[in-house]
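Sanity check

After download, print the first record. It should look like this:
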Amino acid sequence: MTPNGPFASGGGAAALIRRGEAEAGAWRFRLEEEGWRDLVATLARDPLPFVGLWADGQNVHALFLEGGERVLVASVAPYGGRYLGLSGVRPAASLPERCVHDLWGFEAMEARDTRPWLDHGVWTATWPLGPRPGPVSWPPDPPEFRPQPGGGTILGIGPADGGHHTPGYLRLALGGRDTVGGAEWRLGYAHRGVMARLCGLDAPAAVRLAGRAAAGASVAHQSALCRAIEAASDSMVGTGTERCRVLLAEIERVATHLHDVARTARAAGATALAAECEYLRESVMDLCGRMFGHRLLMDLVRPEGPDGHAGTGDAEEGAAIAAVARQVADLVRGRMRAVGRCRDWPGLEARVAGRGVLGEHTARMLGVGGGGRPGLGRGRTICAGWCRAIAWAGWIPGCAAPATWRRGSTCAWPRSAAAPASWKPPARTVRSPEPGRRPAATARAWAVPKGRAARCGTG
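Expected structure tokens:
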């Protein structure tokens, strides 16, 4: 995720973070209360990309990307259970701040939104993960929603809608001419206790559990936790392991983006395009099931041991993963003509043009990342489901990115033109770690005593 233009800066805030006490090599720093306040003030004029915010029961941590790619974490110990919130200068921090308060009881001062988000008043204790859980008040307070300007119709969806996704309540404020004036999520209707269950597990068991946090992102979650565990235990990651993880992650990304494009197409009334993408996704998942024993690629990513062994990426396994990656590339190539015909159906582009326009400033404030970010500097239209299904094909031996794909100018659909170099994976994605250097951890596992993960989580 490499930002363009103003996304790439962040020198002032990053330098301020680095003045703190280093606690995890060169990427995590502890700030005192005054230093944290200075950081918040600096972020008001510094576009350092914000990624996430969480707590561990003792500290609050904020994750940034320095230069768009270098992990940088600022940590602060809440004084009296309170800390200065980041949502005033980074609106994307609003939901994590509400989540931290519901689970740990740490209050974000000067926050944009202080309403409960996950706690509906029916838990056995308030602040269940905090150092001193509190009693439950009864009866529970009714849910609070933001007032919607201009009246209009309120449409509620969920939490029990028959789907297989996480139960949640989506509240839409509908305006005139089929427009959505406001949208708000309310979660907390189900809880699996993943973070609490991770603590005390040995590394393989923790990685196995992380792979079940989200069905469509098993490789992503397991890879993130593996990197964190390896960084915490000073384990070197072999070249084969790194490359195998990249290939597995990109195969997973293929299926995910095909699913997103299919849903976008179906919402736009392009049922033929949706059917083609769904068929292609099913073909990819069926291939993974036959070759790896699991359609969702679960439990293929394993942490490396301190000696550099026992991880994903031995020669035989690497060859098998590369072979499947080639077959996936062939599957995508073989269906491009059919997908192109459906995409070019008259009237389809007109129906999606102008939908979901997101300006540069709003995108920066909300922390929008992913495939849509490169177009933000030009204020172009963003549609859900940017398909990068074959972005990685040029890296696989014997494969090349098809010349029938390029970045869409106004919508999610790939366009029939020559593929630019930006479709190829950046060199840093597959570059092996330098000798004697281990990658920075981006998941949360900073202490692994005697091979067991402590204070770890994935999100």
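If your output differs, re-run the checksum step. Summary of this record's structure: The longest strand covers residues 60-66.
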